[in-house]
Amino acid sequence: MLAPFLLLFLGFFIYPFFYAVYLSVFASKQGLTRFAGLSNYALALTDPQFWSSIRTVVYFGLLQAVAVLLVGLVLALILDSPLIRGSGLFRLVYFLPYAVPGVIAAIMWGFLYSPSLDPLMTIFTHSAASISGGNLIYYIVNIVAWEFAGYNMTLYFAALTALLWRYMKQRSWTGARNSSSLSGSNCHCCGP
Fold first, then answer.
1. Measured CA distances, 67 to 73, 82, 106, 152, 153 (Å)
2. How far is it, in rounded angstroms, from Cα 83 to Cα 34?
3. What is the pLDDT of residue 191?
4. Mean pLDDT computed over every residue of the chain
5. pLDDT computed for residue 47 by the predictor
6. What is the SS3 assignment for 66-79?
């Protein structure tokens, strides 16, 4: 049972990883390949563009993590609110982007961020150059938040539902049936 997984894991993850490490200790110049040792790594670690790209990736990771988690939490709280009607449809609408294939989403966002095709982009941006400027990372964070906020909303909503279930179960055990406040119950998962 484990053999197919191990075969695919070795073929598509382990072998390419070690082959890339092997290639990284060689240098090619004018069609000739020679052993370079760790000089490629030394060159990369002294390159200011390498460190700039590392900072950009860390900044993007922090931005997208905060955006996805906050948007997911807000959507879950809205979904958990008794004021929302049609919560099943609401849940589907916000979970649907998670099911859209990446290629389709990329084409869709390409159209949405094109100033010549999307009338909203002409309102929000002054020129097409602003998309490719320093604001590009925020557009990408928006795409990632759109893609994964519904998934996180589902996780948060499941946790809120489980918390409510535990609270109601605790109330039935303690006999606090008419209490409308959490402060008077013995529930350790929700109480103050």
1. 10, 25, 19, 11, 12
2. 69
3. 45
4. 80
5. 95
6. HHHHHHHHHHHHHH
pTM comes to 0.67
**CATH code of residue 174:** 1.10.3720.10
- Summarize the confidence of residues 39-61 as an average pLDDT: 95
Residue whose tokens read 């859209």 = 100
Same domain, 23 and 87: no
* The two structure tokens encoding residue 164: 């409510």
Q: How far apart are the first and last CA of the chain?
A: 49
CA–CA gap between residue 42 and residue 172 (Å, rounded): 66
| Angle CA 103–129–47, to nearest 5 | 80
Count of domains forming the chain: 2
Domain span holding position 55: 48-192
Residues 42, 190: Cα–Cα separation, whole Å: 54
The pLDDT value recorded for residue 187 is: 44
What percent of the chain stands above pLDDT 90?
32
Report the b/e string of 140-158 with b at 16+ CB within 10 A. Answer: ebbbebbbbbbbbbbebbe
